[in-house]
Fold this sequence. Notes:
Elements: E1 2-6, H1 11-22, E2 26-31, E3 50-54, E4 67-70, H2 77-80, H3 84-105, E5 108-114, H4 141-161, E6 165-170, E7 173-174, H5 185-194, E8 199-202, E9 208-210, E10 212-213, H6 214-226, E11 234-236, E12 241-243, H7 244-255, E13 261-264, H8 279-285, H9 293-309
Parallel strand pairs: 1-2, 1-4, 2-3, 4-5, 5-6, 6-11, 7-10, 8-13
Antiparallel strand pairs: 9-12
Helix pairs in contact: 1-6, 3-4, 5-7, 5-9, 7-9
Amino acid sequence: MKILVTGGAGFLGSHLCEKLLLTGHEVVALDNLVTGSKANIDHLFSNSKFEFIRHDVTFPIYLEIEGIFNLACPASPKKYQSDPVQTLKTSVHGAINLLGLAKRTKAKILQASTSEIYGDPNVSPQNESYWGNVNPIGIRSCYDEGKRAAETLFSDYHRQYNLDIRIARIFNTYGPKMAEDDGRVVSNFIVQALSNQPITIYGDGNQTRSFCYVDDLISGLVKLFDQPGINTPVNLGNPVAINMKDLANEIIKYTKSESKLVFKDLPQDDPVDRLPDITKARKILNWEPFVDREAGLNKTIEYFKNILSA
């Protein structure tokens, strides 16, 4: 297939482009490079099946393609809160433009949604039937509500136009090619630990997250895209939780760091619990993560060692 990957120069998008090329697809990566980096895809330009277009999805794009992965949107709170209006436009206008492209070309289209649509959840773990607990006017709302609106648009295009859609609700993912300044917890902790700086924990450190290694997540996205008839959301993430104090101490151990923990106030609307129920993915995709956290963190640490010493 000829597949468009929006956000193709980003963390997840660049890994996805690699995976699709390895499986024989033609890939068009589209990115406005606001948070993505051409350095993530430089090694792909020599592949005759790869093409890059610098473009913002809030404006229409006219291509002849057979499949679309819509990964365009800043994903870390630091990045998406820096320009909240543009973040919301990217999710909503971007979805409208790409759904229009899919409708015209009869392409299958996958939306990279997020666990953030569950907000600060009242149930744990979160399954796809849970509607969430989201503040519609908070500092995270530009991302949370933008992704929720995009899911609505995808679902309505499916109902109204019989468009072949997929919706992946992606939980925290980490691995090589994360930006060192993106503000997400794994990259923050690793960069601070490698520099022997204090490791910053927001809140009391007892809030939990689960972390999926990037190779596992990309495998799940491709399996979901390839599986016919799955037009409702599917959680993709690691069902093993860890609190932030324990994560920081693990990273200190693996980096042999002298860093100490420092605690700061918890940001507004920061969820205290985030854990996926992946029963649906196990059942319909035969998918679950297999890279354990120690192996994944050590691979990520090696990546950051290399870029920090360059």
